[in-house]
Amino acid sequence: MKKITTIFLSLFLLMNTSSASQLTKCNNVTRENFTQEAPFGSLITTLVNGLKPTAFSKDWKTQSASFLQKMKTQDAKDLTGSASALFELYKLLNPKTMSKEWKTEKGAFLHGVSEVKSKEDLSRLLLLLVNNISPTYFTKEFKAQLESFKKTIGSLGMN
Questions:
Q1: pTM for the complete prediction?
Q2: Contact status, residue 101 vs residue 87, Cβ threshold 8 Å
Q3: Is 79 helix (H, G, I), strand (E, B) or coil?
Q4: Contacts of 49 (CB under 8 A, 6+ apart)
Q5: What is the Cβ-side half-sphere exposure of residue 21, based on CA atoms within 13 angstroms?
Q6: Torsion of CA 38, 40, 42, 43, to 10 degrees
Q7: Over the stretch 4-44, which tens digit does the pLDDT of each residue have?
Q8: How many Cα atoms sit within 13 Å of 30 on the Cβ side?
Q9: Are 98 and 133 in contact (CB under 8 A)?
Q10: Which helix (H) or strand (E) holds 154?
Q11: 3-class SS at 93?
């Protein structure tokens, strides 16, 4: 009986240690994959896909294909290019898309676009833009995932 208890306890400890080790490996892979699988352009594309067609200006119809093509390779490491992409997206939005608060936030956004020095700055700018889009312009599906999307943007500055 003592031998069976010892074997059972040993197996239990071995399984828990193994599971903890695998969980750590999974977490590390997830963090690494985030930077590989969700580059900045992917976040922008997710946002664009989460907006209703009425959120865009008339220019979107002619410029959307080239804009989305650029987003396929846009990486947050390219701070100037990423800030430029944010500004370009803002210019392609219908002015009615922005909330009333945008009138006071727009200056900070425009200044920030020209002053990006880190991924954290980039993350803040994207959040500023997302937070100032009127919720009525988000698709139903995107609204349901908006908080998760914002957390993902926030983690961009931590990588």
A1: 0.74
A2: no
A3: helix
A4: 142
A5: 6
A6: 100
A7: 444 444 443 444 434 333 333 333 333 333 333 457 899 99
A8: 8
A9: yes
A10: helix 140-156
A11: strand
